[in-house]
Write a structure and sequence with these properties.
Radius of gyration: 20 Å
Distance between the termini: 45 Å
Oligomer: single chain
Number of strands: 9
Structural class: alpha/beta
Largest sheet: 7 strands, parallel
Shape: globular
CATH architecture of the domain at 2-172 and 204-230 and 283-298: 3-Layer(aba) Sandwich
Strand content: 5-15%
Length: 322
């Protein structure tokens, strides 16, 4: 199979390219600039991704597109019109690529969306599933949902096979943002106020996401489907801290603070949404992809966390960070 990966030099893209090459596929990576170097794959520079991007060279001879590139969720937004910026890349850029892919004879288009299309949190014992009515609440999620709708319309009009994957928070080697910050805090022995938290959240190891994407790209029954994907092991924030500490052979330092106090404090400092992700529930029912495609996570949650921590230790050592 000749497979085009957009966002090939990103956190997930690099893992995906490596695994596809290992399985014997021909891989081409679409990059926005020539500053990034990807070993062992053909790279095509496409520039900025929007409704005007020319994908001709990138799509030549391609059987499958796996579309990772996106304007990701921004914690500290600075754009004057955030929704317009998200739509520019995530909706118009995606639709433009899909239309050109159909014209170029591409058979299947795998789109990495977000669980945020379903909503921001779940009620206890009621995990998100594919049958839920979408409830995107922020600009990023809205742009992803609109892109999903556009892709399904393009599929109906052109026959392009579309598969949509909605992952939760993805972790693994080279992870950044809040997950990396959490690992760093645990490494330094900083006490964390999550000892009383008994929520349940789904996570997804990068290796499991990549395996699911390849299954969605190649399995005949995946065409036209939307799948929610996770590690299949939901844990609380306090349990996550405990497992990461164990993986690092560090002492678990958890303070028992009332949830109401954490909510109040986070509101005062303007971090209410960030605290919600630490305190609230967000569970995924991944049984659909397991039943329809015979997929199951290759790696356990513990294996994924250990791999992430091992990378963190090696990264700190290579960077000379104490």
């Amino acid at each position: 199979m000749n497979i085009l990966i957009t966002g090939a030099n990103g956190f997930i893209g690099q893992v995906l390219c490596d695994e596809l090459l290992r399985q014997g596929h021909s891989v081409r990576g679409a990059l926005r600039s020539s500053n990034s170097v990807i070993e062992n794959i053909e790279a095509v520079i496409v520039g900025s991704i929007d409704g005007e991007t020319d994908w001709t060279d990138a799509l030549r001879g391609v059987d499958i597109v796996i579309h990772l590139a996106a304007r990701v969720h921004v914690m500290e937004e600075t754009a004057a019109n955030p929704l317009a910026e998200y739509l520019k890349v995530n909706l118009h850029g995606t639709a433009n690529l899909a239309k050109q892919a159909a014209v170029a004879g591409v058979k299947r288009f795998v789109y990495v969306s977000s669980i945020k299309v379903n909503g921001e949190h779940t009620n206890e014992g009621q995990p998100f599933s594919e049958s839920d009515n979408p409830q995107p609440q922020d600009d990023y999620a809205i742009s992803k949902w609109k892109a999903e709708q556009a892709l399904m319309k393009i599929s109906q009009e052109t026959g392009l096979e579309v598969v949509i994957v909605r992952p939760p928070l993805v972790y693994g080697p080279s992870v950044k943002a809040n997950f990396l910050n959490l690992i760093s805090l645990i490494h330094h022995g900083i006490p964390l106020p999550f000892g009383s938290i008994r929520n349940k959240r789904s996570f997804l190891y990068a290796g499991n996401l990549v395996d699911a994407l390849i299954t969605c790209a190649t399995h005949p029954a995946a065409a036209g489907q939307t799948f929610l994907v996770s590690d299949g092991e939901d844990i609380s924030t306090s349990e996550l801290v405990g497992q990461l500490a164990d993986c690092m052979a560090k002492r678990k330092r958890l303070l028992k603070c009332p949830v109401w106090f954490l909510n109040m404090a986070s509101s005062v400092i303007g971090k209410a949404s960030s605290m919600e992700r630490l305190l609230g529930n967000l569970q995924i029912d991944n049984s659909t992809i397991c039943k329809k495609l015979g997929w199951k996570p290759r790696f356990t949650l513990r294996q994924g966390l250990q791999s992430t921590v091992d990378w963190y230790s090696a990264w700190r050592s290579a960077s000379g960070i104490q």
